[in-house]
Amino acid sequence: MKQITVYDIAKEAKVSVATVSRVLNDTAPVRASTREKIEAIMQKYQFQPNANARSLLKKETGIIGIILPDITNPFFPEVFSGAEQEGRESGHTFFLCNTTGLHDKESEFLTIMQEKRVDGILFMGGRINLKDCHPALIQEVVEHSQKIPMVLVNGNLKDSGITRVVTDEYAGTVLGVKHLIEIGHTKIGFIGGESHMSTTAVKLRAFKKTLKDAGLAVREDWILPDSFSVESGRTQMEVLLNRKDRPTAVCCVNDFTAIGAIKAAVEQGVRVPEDISIVGFDDIPLAHHVIPELTTVSQQANQLGRTAVKVLRELMNKEKIKKIYSLEPELIVRQSTRLIIE
């Protein structure tokens, strides 16, 4: 049996393809008798427009592209979950691209997205989190953003003018450090994060400023950047614990490093939080399943994803939008920190 198309529907109904499109998408008024005739023909053939037909009719594919750096890091699936929930409400599906942090893969996926004519792009991680991104890498993204609506999520490209949706990581770090100070800690270290990444730089700046504002010493030998992994947290915590003079509390760049830090402490017989308090960052689902449950700073990952899609949708609809939308972080106090009892 021949596959029925919108052109066949229009021909049999003796109307234009544009009129069929208006009925399909309810984008403009159509005379009741004409609508009934078109709907009757569609029902007769059990017509369902495919994606290509919708693309031709609406000049849209209904697809949003998402670029992220590490699908194994639970933070990014949490953001994606929020984006998917919001997108589902507007009928969008998603083309998910995992770059493993490689800029070549980012470039490849940007090109593929243009070829697939996605309606918009959410860009997370990779080059948008570099402290000093090469101008050529910035320009490449700018050129794509001029053709396809784009939103940067928790990142920035200097002077690009691309719309951003972020959680205030500086404010989040301040929350974590102030919590430790308020429960009596004066000797506080910092673990994890790659030095060339902006998220590490922002958190370290907030960490040092908060300590200084409280009149506390910033001990550079207690600041141990490395990476964002569990193994990094474990390794760097071992370094701290093996020092003669060690902190009584540690802020970690993310929850993965905090979990690694807890593991190292347990292995060395150091009790958390009785002997040392630990604060993470992100509030990934695993944070309340580890023992002890992790005190951390929530980036509102689900809401971050939802907001990013809302803003992208406004951008796709050519509505007036701001250049940056900022979400407030939230301190989640659990079991890995406790009041110092003299």
TrEMBL record:
Limits of the HTH lacI-type domain: 4-58
UniProt keywords, alphabetically: DNA-binding, Repressor, Transcription, Transcription regulation
Pfam family, one: Peripla_BP_3
Superkingdom: Bacteria
InterPro entries: HTH_LacI, LacI/GalR-like_sensor, Lambda_DNA-bd_dom_sf, Peripla_BP_I
SMART domains per UniProt: HTH_LACI
Name of this protein: HTH-type transcriptional repressor PurR
Lineage per the UniProt record: Bacteria, Bacillati, Bacillota, Bacilli, Bacillales
